[in-house]
Amino acid sequence: MTALITDDQRTMLLANGRQALEEAGFDPAPVVKLFTPDADATWLLTEIDPDEPDHAFGLCDLGLGCPELGWLSLAEVAAVRGPLGLPVERDLYFRAEKRLSGYAREARLAGRIVT
Length: 115
Known about the structure:
- The chain is of the alpha+beta class.
- Helix content is 29%, strand content 26%.
- It has 3 helices and 5 strands.
- It has a 5-stranded antiparallel sheet.
- The chain is globular.
- The mean pLDDT is 96.
């Protein structure tokens, strides 16, 4: 099974979390994309709270037509299973092409995360 977040990604997410605490309006590019292979849930994560390493921030889309920015528990995401019982996966080929605000803007218009 592939880890949801690699060590390098965790390091980058924590660095973004520290920078977000210091810099108002910090708008990083997503570091990792997670998704359910047998459902419509997608998460684009930009940072991890350095004081709470289970808490990540990003654009969350549970496939209900209303993606939103917010905090989530990585343990809870790891426990999610789709209708066929498949676990959440990391998109091995995802490379961010814009800042989180750009993905959020497009997601609001489309009703889903567009990557």
